[in-house]
Amino acid sequence: GVFYNRNGSLQFDKVDDSHAGRYSCTPYNDLGTDGPSPIINVIVQRPPFFTIKPKLVYVTKMGGTVQMHCDARDRDGYHIPQITWIKKDGSLLPYGRFSVNGGNITIEDIVESDRGIYGCQATNEAATVTADAEIMIENVSPRAPYNLTGNSTDTSITIRWAPGYIRQYLEYIIWYRLAEAPEWRTLKVNDKHVLEATITNLQPAREYEFMVLCQDNYGDGMFSKAFRYFTKPTEFEQPENGLQDALLQFSQIGSPRNFYVRKEQDNFVARWEPPELGLDQLRFYILRWWIEPQHKLHGSAETSETHYILEQLDEDEMYTIQVFALSTTNYTSGSNEYELYVYPYRRVKVMTVSGVLILLFCLAVISTLLYMKRKRIRQLREAENMKI
């Protein structure tokens, strides 16, 4: 992993502890050299690692106290990196109600604004690493979504919103109706990380009313403020059909069914069945997979088939995989989520092959030693026979 370049520089491809030390450079030509350069000390730095991580979730009550523990060390195990706490939504820590002792933080007199995700950051000269923790307050529902906006076509309206509270497992339900209608209808947003929804099969040039409801493990939160938006008019009036089902304007495409992932030969293959509702409106399928537990989107693919070969999965990782049906009106409906752990096949294979090679080498060494020992014994016996 060390390369000598023609310009006189020394390149380290993958730095490790063996590269630390004292270096000097000595130039030569046909007349000789004027001596080496001054000594250069190379110090290999590594990111810190956590010796104590905070719990993922702390559940408390209003007015309670939360203490979150965190500690880290440099890779040599002796030096302590700088440890700081932040709130991941960008807001400040509660003034006058928190204290930090070493890497531990204590927050007293908990109020509603204290809930959220916190980060313990360990920093040294090489890098900064973060461990997350979340404070949840019992019997306090999530805040209402806000800042609703929209755009429309003649038969659909897309609304977007800002989350009232950032949490990984919030779910959203869209309530909508004609502005003058008494009955509300609902649409659940299947992707927990999408902050928009498209309602299709609406009537042209009509005003619709929307509200967004969020949910968490403690139940329903608050509704957003009511938001009204018009669909665009068409150039002609559609003929009225008295026999038309009144629910038809609210029909959507169904979800892909029986979604699963299996290892077939050397590949992971995702398979599913088409939706039962709105199959004639299907445009294509969207497959997405996230790395857990941070639920980070790792890949996305589009296909018109009911199967897909997953070729971009890293070993020794847990994934959540889901397939969505996309309609011609840009409405998506998601299948069940499937969790998949990718076993470290390559690593185990390399270790197995290495073990076999080491074993063969040891057998070869033992065989050689036995052969040399037998040869020596035979030579000694021959020497004794010659003396006799």
From TrEMBL:
<dbReference type="GO" id="GO:0070593">
    <property type="term" value="P:dendrite self-avoidance"/>
</dbReference>
<dbReference type="GO" id="GO:0030424">
    <property type="term" value="C:axon"/>
</dbReference>
<dbReference type="GO" id="GO:0098632">
    <property type="term" value="F:cell-cell adhesion mediator activity"/>
</dbReference>
<keyword id="KW-0393">Immunoglobulin domain</keyword>
<keyword id="KW-0812">Transmembrane</keyword>
<keyword id="KW-1133">Transmembrane helix</keyword>
<dbReference type="Pfam" id="PF13927">
    <property type="entry name" value="Ig_3"/>
</dbReference>
<dbReference type="InterPro" id="IPR013783">
    <property type="entry name" value="Ig-like_fold"/>
</dbReference>
<dbReference type="GO" id="GO:0007411">
    <property type="term" value="P:axon guidance"/>
</dbReference>
<dbReference type="InterPro" id="IPR003599">
    <property type="entry name" value="Ig_sub"/>
</dbReference>
<dbReference type="InterPro" id="IPR007110">
    <property type="entry name" value="Ig-like_dom"/>
</dbReference>
<dbReference type="InterPro" id="IPR003598">
    <property type="entry name" value="Ig_sub2"/>
</dbReference>
<feature type="domain" description="Ig-like">
    <location>
        <begin position="48"/>
        <end position="136"/>
    </location>
</feature>
<dbReference type="Pfam" id="PF00041">
    <property type="entry name" value="fn3"/>
</dbReference>
<dbReference type="GO" id="GO:0007156">
    <property type="term" value="P:homophilic cell adhesion via plasma membrane adhesion molecules"/>
</dbReference>
<keyword id="KW-0472">Membrane</keyword>
<feature type="domain" description="Fibronectin type-III">
    <location>
        <begin position="141"/>
        <end position="234"/>
    </location>
</feature>
<dbReference type="InterPro" id="IPR036116">
    <property type="entry name" value="FN3_sf"/>
</dbReference>
<protein>
    <recommendedName>
        <fullName>Ig-like domain-containing protein</fullName>
    </recommendedName>
</protein>
<dbReference type="GO" id="GO:0005886">
    <property type="term" value="C:plasma membrane"/>
</dbReference>
<feature type="domain" description="Fibronectin type-III">
    <location>
        <begin position="255"/>
        <end position="345"/>
    </location>
</feature>
<dbReference type="InterPro" id="IPR036179">
    <property type="entry name" value="Ig-like_dom_sf"/>
</dbReference>
<dbReference type="InterPro" id="IPR003961">
    <property type="entry name" value="FN3_dom"/>
</dbReference>
<feature type="transmembrane region" description="Helical">
    <location>
        <begin position="350"/>
        <end position="372"/>
    </location>
</feature>
